[in-house]
Amino acid sequence: MKKLLAVGLVILVLLLGVWASGPFLAVHNIRKAIEAQDTAALSQHIDFPALRANFKQQLDDQLVRRAGADVQSGLLGAIALGMAGNLTDGVVDMLATPAGLGALIEGRGLVRRVTSDRINPNENDVNTAPSDPLEGAKYRFQSPSRFTITLHPETEDPLVVGMTRDGLRWRVTDIRLPFDAAALANE
């Protein structure tokens, strides 16, 4: 009886270890994919439909907040906001790609990352390997199925990457974009 209990306890501890190490293994694979600039490997760890919906919601909300109550209350302002909301689809399409996410996580400008080879191929930092994009990140379990990575936690608006568990696999499903809160308060 004691042996059966001991074996059951060992199995439970092993399963708990596999579960707890899952997001850290996914983060390690994401780090390697970003450093190697391997978009195929990076895309295996991302739920693109969920991420697109997340980006769309954040950008639309930011657009309405920046417009202010005066613009929202008028008929022309409402029409302009509706048209501008359609323009956020293009930004979402740029961000919700492996290259866009790699640039976002690295902290580099998206347009520069995507077009740097075409703009100035002799530029010094085009061919240099990026530094560790997750250096100094803070990791946290929010629930048994939710894990967050906070990049650049020392800044006022850090980039927060949310991962969700699907079985034993962890995938990026949420990235809270670092909108400048101070600029928003002054507008």
Question: How would you summarize the topology of this molecule?
Answer:
Blueprint (H helix, E strand, L loop, with lengths): L1 H35 L2 H5 L4 H26 L1 H21 L2 H9 L3 H10 L18 E6 L2 E6 L7 E8 L2 E8 L4 H6 L1
Antiparallel strand pairs: 1-2, 2-3, 3-4
Helix pairs in contact: 3-4
Please indicate the count of domains: 1
Oligomer: single chain
Cross-sheet strand order for the largest sheet: 1-2-3-4
The major β-sheet equals: 4 strands, antiparallel
Query: Separation of termini?
Result: 70 Å
Shape: elongated
**Overall pLDDT, averaged?**
76
Radius of gyration: 21 Å
Poorly predicted ranges? 110-130, 181-187
Query: How many DSSP E strands?
Result: 4
How many helix segments?
A: 7
SSE class: alpha+beta
Helical residues, percent: 55-70%
Strand content: 5-15%
- Can you write the helix and strand succession as a string? HHHHHHEEEEH
Protein name: DUF2939 family protein
InterPro entries: DUF2939
Pfam family, one: DUF2939
What does this structure look like?
- This is DUF2939 family protein.
- It comes from Aerolutibacter ruishenii.
- InterPro entries: DUF2939.
- The protein is 60% helix and 15% strand.
- The chain starts with a helix and ends with a helix.
- The protein has helices at residues 2-36, 39-43, 48-73, 75-95, 98-106, 110-119, 181-186; strands spanning 138-143, 146-151, 159-166, 169-176.
- It has seven helices and four strands; from the N terminus they run ααααααββββα.
- The protein is elongated and about 75 Å long.
- It has a four-stranded antiparallel β-sheet with strand order 1-2-3-4.
- β3 and β4 form a beta hairpin.
- The chain has one domain (2-186).
- The model is unreliable at 110-130 and 181-187 (pLDDT under 50).
- With 187 residues, the protein is α+β, with helices and mostly antiparallel strands.
